[in-house]
Design brief:
Order of helices and strands of chain A: EHEEEHEE
Oligomer: homotrimer
Number of strands of chain A: 6
Distance between the termini of chain A: 13 Å
Largest interface: A-B, 36 and 35 residues
Largest sheet of chain A: 4 strands, mixed
Number of helices of chain A: 2
């Protein structure tokens, strides 16, 4: 049940955007052991005027930077997050071919009782 | 002061989308005791290519799934969250008629000092 | 590495929206001591039907309300947040001229290990 929102500049073809979803899903399967079809993701495309990226922390980002905001259970360990970051950058590098400099991820932690994945229930509380 | 963002597939009429706002507001009034006109909500509509939903956790979601991301005070109890989930699914089921399988909610907790609801002040710190 | 998302009603000229980005960046530089070019921001413009704002907490908000959702290191102090809120409202008041009533900010805290600002690494863990 991670839920993910991806923000990027407008203009990429649909196959490119689908590859981002696919890569994230695969990275979550491999590093977080999420169950099958645990895919809850949205994407927003932004005009240049509504999107800003800097070069802070010595990373040569381009206009193709992708912001990935993920909310996960607060039981995920630093090791799992580290593995997730690494695998996500690898997979998005292969397809759709995003430079590793352009993969920006931030994770938010949410307690088990903070999720309702259907039916108005708190399934994990 | 919960602040809410709702993501859904594009194409629903305005009345449908307003009913989602109305239902969430009413659910917050009834279960979180938020003050009158405590309505801070945004909605984004996504093309199919920018929206993905799976069937994980045994829930038969449809293309009408609605992702509701809420940020609330970190003083809210698990019981309040449970009541909020239940009431939200009930109300959205009545109007605009969303299937309970399609109501997906995740709550983020923010400390009292993390809110500025106007005037550059930290009103609740 | 704060990452920021701004939501506002559609229709403001580009210069207005750039001034919001500029003001936020300057406020972060001055109050959070973020490094140079630490600018990671996205903006979404909403039709009236997809945007709702209330008057709760005695604040006379207008249709020009701006919702600013920021994720920061969880090491930021209440004092830093207070200074950030104050300075942001001041700067957005000067340019593009947003009323202080219309500046709504919520901060989310993310641990150091929750950030990957490029290269698939957890730079701050």
């Amino acid at each position: 049940m991670p839920i993910i929102h991806i923000s990027l500049r407008a203009g990429k073809p649909e196959a490119y955007r689908q590859a981002i979803f696919d890569g994230l899903y695969r990275a979550m399967r491999e590093t977080l052991n999420v169950p099958e079809d645990d895919q809850f993701m949205t994407m927003s495309e932004h005009d240049a005027a509504n999107f800003r990226s800097g070069t802070a922390y010595g990373v040569a980002r381009s206009a193709d930077v992708v912001y990935i905001r993920m909310t996960v259970f607060n039981t995920r360990t630093p090791e799992q997050k580290k593995a997730l970051f690494k695998r996500t950058a690898e997979l998005l590098g292969k397809s759709p071919g995003i430079r590793p400099e352009d993969v920006f991820i931030v994770v938010l932690d949410a307690a088990k009782e903070n999720w309702s994945v259907g039916h108005g229930l708190a399934q994990f509380a």
